[in-house]
Design goal:
Blueprint lengths: L1 H25 L2 H18 L6 E11 L1 H6 L6 H8 L1 H5 L2 H11 L15 H17 E8 L3 E10 L5 H55 L12 H41 L15 E3 L1 H22 L8 H18 L4 E3 L3 H91 L4 E7 L12 H6 L1
Helix pairs in contact: 6-7, 6-8, 8-12, 9-12, 10-11, 10-12, 11-12
């Protein structure tokens, strides 16, 4: 029974199709007449639709081999931006207007007395510009890293000057691209130069401050907790040496004092010869040994003063020179009070007195020399103490100012990094500017010349028939 139902369904469909075809055949003029009328009206209407003729040209935009070698480096992005701005740069009213002005199109427009277009002429020019902007169509056909194939089409109702306009638009686009690229690069170069100069001035100022820090606080650049510890240890050793020297000189002075005391006792037991030589008239006289000894000692003192000034470069204010001058003055006064000659028979007693007196004075001279050495060592000791205190104060100042120094050093590092970044950008940019100035950037070449279209591109016949 299921088989019978399928046969009935097929028979019903065939019957329906046969009925439809019968109705169409019997009423065929109801379909043919409206179709013919519609086609006739569409064809007649198409005669009044404005024709548009499309003129097409193709050109190649290729990177110069030198520029192609820089594409992996910086400062080629300007050329990439130009590739993306093609439509914007071409479809600008001012660009098209400048092209038409160079081509003197459209011709025979009303001109005012001053040589400028009249109001009607300006309106006609603007209308023509808008038609070109609406009819101009740039298309990217092929794109590679260093080469682009572009198609430029222009659709106008009157294609008489379409070829000239397309050629003018391509030339203008090439000129605009070169000028924009060079202007942008020169502006960027000026900006980079200004930034480099500013960073250089800031870095010089910070480096000067860091140098002042290092000069005022030696060791501030290190990470040591106490940069002056070694210097202070040396000063402490120097202070110890001076203190030991003072102790030794004081001990020797004490020993000299005991010797001087014993010499004085010896002199009391052996009094010197009379000072007045007139008491020995008629008596055989001889040279006073004390007088000769004083003159010899004064000569030695003068020799020591000369050696200290010439060989040791001591000044007149040096403690040793001052002590020797005082000793010489005393010996000169003593020499003035000593008779140069004495009786020969009193020579033994006089000689003994002179020897005792000379020994005592030599001890006193040694004591004075020790006193000068003690005074000099005490001055050096005080100087060492002062320098040790200065070293401690320097350590405190270093620790107090080290954080400020590190901040300045960090700032110098940041400025130096920024400066290197600007300098790194400036080098490739100047190379790109050199390429552009020497016409080694992007080259344009027409691969398919525009030709005057003989058939309209709009309206399309198929569209008219479908309508």
């Amino acid at each position: 029974m299921h088989h019978q139902v399928d046969e009935f369904s097929v028979t019903d469909i065939r019957h329906t199709i046969a009925e439809i075809w019968r109705v169409v055949r019997e009423r065929r003029w109801w379909f043919i007449f409206p179709f013919c009328v519609g086609t006739t009206v569409a064809c007649a209407a198409s005669l009044f639709i404005p024709r548009k003729y499309t003129t097409t040209m193709m050109f190649e935009r290729k990177n110069d081999p030198v520029l192609a070698g820089m594409l992996a480096r910086r400062w080629t992005r300007m050329y990439d931006d130009q590739r993306k701005r093609l439509r914007h740069d071409l479809l600008r009213d001012d660009v098209i207007e400048e092209v038409l002005r160079e081509l003197n199109l459209p011709a025979n427009l009303p001109v005012a007395a001053a040589g400028q277009f009249s109001t009607e002429g300006e309106a006609a020019r603007n209308a023509f510009v808008r038609k070109i902007v609406h009819g101009l169509q740039p298309t990217l056909i092929e794109k590679t890293t260093n080469r682009d194939i572009m198609q430029l089409s222009l659709s106008l109702a009157d294609p008489t000057h379409a070829v000239e306009i397309l050629d003018g638009v391509l030339r203008k686009y090439e000129d605009i691209m070169r000028k924009q690229t060079l202007t942008f690069m020169l502006s960027a170069e000026e900006f980079y130069v200004e930034r480099i100069a500013r960073c250089g001035a800031e870095l010089s100022d910070v480096d000067r401050q860091l140098a002042d820090f290092r000069k005022k606080y030696p060791g501030i650049h290190s990470n040591d907790e106490d940069p002056t510890v070694f210097e202070r240890k040396d000063l402490q050793l120097e202070r110890t040496r001076h203190q030991d020297s003072i102790d030794d000189l004081l001990f020797r002075r004490t020993d000299l004092a005991r010797k001087i005391a014993r010499s004085k006792k010896t002199g009391e037991r052996n009094p010197p010869a009379p000072a007045d030589a007139s008491e020995f008239d008629g008596v055989e006289m001889t040279t006073n040994p004390k007088y000769a000894a004083l003159r010899t000692e004064i000569g030695k003192i003068d020799h020591q003063i000369t050696d200290n000034r010439k060989l040791k470069f001591m000044t007149d204010l040096h403690p040793t020179i001052v002590s020797l001058r005082k000793l010489r003055q005393r010996r000169s006064e003593e020499l003035a009070n000593t008779v140069p000659r004495i009786p020969a028979d009193s020579l033994p007693a006089a000689s003994l007195a002179v020897v005792v007196r000379s020994q005592e004075e030599l001890l006193i001279a040694q004591r004075e020399k020790l006193d000068a050495g003690i005074a000099s060592s005490r001055v050096k000791l005080a100087n060492a103490e002062q320098r040790i205190e200065g070293s401690r104060q320097l350590r405190n100042d270093i620790l107090e100012n080290r954080e400020a120094y590190w901040r300045q050093e960090k700032k110098a590092g940041q400025i130096r990094s920024e400066l290197q970044a600007w300098q790194g950008e400036l080098g490739p940019l100047r190379n790109a500017v050199t390429l552009e100035k020497n016409d080694r950037g992007i080259h344009f070449a027409v691969t398919q010349k525009p030709y005057l279209a003989s058939k309209p591109s709009a309206p399309v016949s198929l569209t008219i028939m479908l309508a």
